[in-house]
Amino acid sequence: MKPAPFAYHAPRTLAEAIEVLGALGHDGKILAGGQSLIPMLSMRLAAPAHLIDINAVAGLNEIAVTPEAVRVGATVRHRALERSPQAYAVLPLLRQALVNVAHPAIRNRGTTVGSIAHADAAGEMPAVAALTGAVMEVAGPGGPREISAADFFTGPLETTLAPEEILTAVRFSRFPEGTLTGFLESARRSGDYAMAGVGVAVTVKQGSIVAARASFVSVTDIPDVLDLTPVLADVSAQDLPTRWDDLRGAVREHVSPESDIHASADYRRMLAGELTCRVVTQVMTR
Amino acid sequence: MTTKLFGAPIARREDPRLVTGNGRYLDDLGHTAYEAAFVRSPHAHARIVDIDVTDALETPGLIGIWSHEDLGGAVGEPLPLLIPHPALTHPRTGYALAAGEVNHVGEAIALVVAEDRYAAEDAVARIRVDYDFLTPVVGLEKARAATDLVHAEVPGNVAANLRQEVGDVDAAMAAAPNRLRLDLTIERSACMPMEGKGVYAKWDSDAEHLTLWSSTQTATGVRAAVAARLGLPLAKVDCIAPDVGGGFGVKIMHPWPEEVLIPWAARLLGHDVKWTEDRREHFISSSHERGQLQEVEVGFDDDGRVLALDVKFWHDNGAFTPYGIIVPIITATQLLGPYKPGAYRVEFWSLYTNTVLVTPYRGAGRPQGCFAMERTMDAIADHLGIDRAEVRGRNFIQPAEMPYDHGLMFQDGRPLKYDSGDFPASLAKLKELVGWEDFATYREQAAAQGRRVGLGIGCYVEGTGVGPYEGAHVVIETSGRVNVATGLTTQGQGHQTVFAQIVADELGVPLESIHVTTGDTRRMPYAVGTFASRAAVMSGNAIALAAQAARAKALKIAADALEVSADDLEIVDGRVRVKGAPDTGMSIGMTAVLSNPLRYAFDDAAQAATQFAGTFDPDKPPVGDDEEPGLEGRDFYSPTQATFANGMHAAIVETDPVTAEITILRYCVIHDCGMMINPMIVEGQVHGGVAQGVGGALYERMVYDESGQLLNASFMDFLMPYATEVPHVETDHLETPSPLNPLGIKGAGEAGCIPVTAVIASAIEDAEGFPITSMPISPVELWELRQRHERGELPSLHRRADEATAKEQQ
Amino acid sequence: MTAEHSNLAAAQGGATVIPVAVIVNGVTRGATVPARRLLSDFLRHDLRLTGTHVGCEHGVCGACTVLLDGEPVRSCLMFAVQAAGREVTTVEGCGTLAELGPVQQAFADCHGLQCGFCTPGFVTTITAYLRENPTPTEAEAREAISGNLCRCTGYQNIVKSVLRAADLIGEQS
Questions:
Q1: pTM above 0.90, yes or no
Q2: Least Cα separation, residue B780 to chain A (angstroms)
Q3: Lowest CB count within 10 Å: B122, B433, B624, B729, which one?
Q4: Would you call C44 and B28 a contact, using CB atoms and an 8 Å cutoff?
């Protein structure tokens, strides 16, 4: 299991990176953390002629907290974001989700933005991007542009990012005051891809839910958002169980899991509903 | 006396090397060797029409490409059938490189050698093979149906059919007041050592000598097989097992195609060649085990005593049978565990499928047999409403009945005769450890919290330390250094420590002076290998005998020199001395000096040993007629039969009422392997076995699709447990000595994994209230069983139905 | 940075060969390697530091774990060229035969290894972990090693080794 030969490019500036990628188009592949890409190269499931390593590109390794968002650059490691006290203070969902991403040694190298660009429906961070209504910052030969999460994911491993474009940062939008978040998933082994997972953001006023949204892992084609407000509106922590059937029903309706060797579609659908009930309980009783 | 080391939990002597990165595993050798990769079949069953290497020839760094027709001689003949058996009527073995037909995904078709592995894989990717597709036979159901055949000339896909019967099963069954039938299935898994296989070969064209390193469990076996294939005298071939990163059975199989081809290529090219198996290769081209369909019919009296046991099973042996039918034979015999059925009949069919071949994996057929027997015991208990432990106790062979002859033939062709064991004592210990009697209360408490828990139990007996023999060579140098060599190999069992412990006691020398070599045919050419939990029993006793021989010689030399009787001497801390007069004596190194009269005085010790040193009797030759120079002992241990270790496990599991996720809350082990040389190491073996058992019960399986593709050939999808999936293991030991060998020991290597699948199934069944008959089991499978149970397609356990009725009546 | 990036014409030909210098266990070590050379192979075969083991080459088993600027990473999921100029610590940098490091000593004390093949990855992982959490509970110790596979020990004694190493490091400081 050794990668096929490739030409290696290590641009130092974003402009250079765009220039190289523009010249190569489909022949080039961006290398950031490489934790998904390199196994595919070693198994020769992918053999791009050129790798453009953006790890040395200046300015991509920053986490910035603004009044509206947490902005994460393309080479920020999962682990750095997970550990950032500033990011955690304003958007705890990031850490809540990130601790579920594989194992620390993978998170030390893998990048959050890279996992979003990879758009694996079994990935945690695409779901978080969806749930936070994140904004994708994209650079390309035509100049920079922004794509909302809702417009970014188009299918499993598919996005609206053009081959000559680079996802340079993701701005995870902060939730309104009074929003509680949680993330829960079930995997066969610790650190494995989840059979199902769910992140929730629940806005509470005076002990009652006023808004609730969820986004799922491994059970939807593309990471998108389920508005649970109609199901959970006006409920308090202690009355939550009265909504379980409706909540499970809403989730079952929303998700479209597929069967694989680890779990059937039916099981995943059940699991998504149950995990949603459990994470909402966690959030409301924390 | 020196402190006795046998039985002491001393720290391992191999560890400082291994923890600092100073181990030398196969791929740590041969940095300048050429490296090999293989074109392997992507199809499960096909005829090879054409192999086109044109594109590959341009690959930078390529040295050569070979397919079957290039091989010639014995290298091109079918690989050997290692263990023939009269019942194996249709044995089939593969070729080093496929000869016209491939029979499983992963079968080697072409060998590529290049300057490094990267280049070799580049060339592999450029070789095009055309196939004519044949219908693959995947899974035991398809094999049994035999609509299609794996090997055209093997009718019914049946490699072997064997039946053994003790007593009159039909009569006993007919007379039994109670009868039950169970279908019990186990899926495929694999050893999956952290280090794959690997071969490194060095051909010395000056000496015309081949030195071969293999990550193997048998250096002597590989040496002999390779010498035969390459047409070399045995004296011109040596094989060394370097540090080996785990084996668990897969590396006892030999010769693997690569073990023949890599030395062949090295000789052909006049250059070192190395092959390091990668993980995908290990999944699709080494071996698997465990897959069996089993049907049990049992007749029993109203007390739960088994009057008749009738077992039929179908064993998936994969595409070839180079290792014979050892695995199903072991299932057939070891299924009986600690029990004595009134009459027993077992019949198996070993079937070909277009999948990776099957050879023993730790436990080697026992986990399947234990699953069959223990599920049966649980079913009897449930049928009669008797406590599960009680039913087992009623069927136990009692200590007074030892040795106990089952009247069957074991895997070594010898009688299945238990040497010792105290099963009632083991069971009592287990019940105490797990809190058997208190569990009902715990279950009620858990239920009150909405939690679902279950208690499971499983017992086994394991034939260990099978022959035919192992040997040992002990050499004492003039410095007092003791070199010990035994031929079998080491894959982490701590042989350098435990064998040194034995020698230290036998010789009376400090542990630090003892140096143990295993798996090196240059040092001990006669050996069998490390499998069947046999190393401690076989090499341990051989080493004790060899050390005793060296000791006797040392005492004789010292006795002559000191002019005392050897009976009056003892060896303490490396010094031979007169009992009661410890100042009178000499170092054991000095006896080595005296053992070897020299001509040349190259150092001080040698000077003391020259022909002209000291006084001598001019009428006697320097080396007597019945003597040899040097202080050495060499001996072999060859027992008449296996020793039988045993153990009993219990587990408490929790199942999530909604998601059906399964958590092991407690795991308890009672283990009896006779006298323990090093209890720390025995305990480690038990821990590791249990973890592999947990993998086999809840996580690991080989998932083939209908076309014979292995769908989970990676560590991403073949779910070996991490630390977070393995429970804390609680252990206690019994030491019932084996009467069969001087050290009183039995094997311990495989024990831990044997009953785990049975125990976990028992516990899940107890938690859920319906029978569990197929393992491994995943949350989704348990969830689906619950649905079938709710729909009335699965019966409730009697004890749950009874409880429900009782509740309704209240 | 060692790799050229602008000479596309040269790169089109296939494998780029690049001189790579890495600070390994405190010493700058270099070799000229193709860009595709995995860091694991670079350490093992170019530098001949064979303590780092390769168990799966797809990032799951953890045997190849090394510390990159002090943080554990899978050396099979990085190219050597990406480590240029960085500090890499392998198991050989965690202690020597003459003086075992505390984690290594703990493994020897607790029978934390059998075949030893996975051990280097555990040693590096635990070394980094104990810097972050010098006094783990048993549950934390178990979690800390949950990204590394071992097929021999059932992890029981590795968990003990983590706790023992924490004690040994505590005694030293």
A1: yes
A2: 6
A3: B624
A4: yes
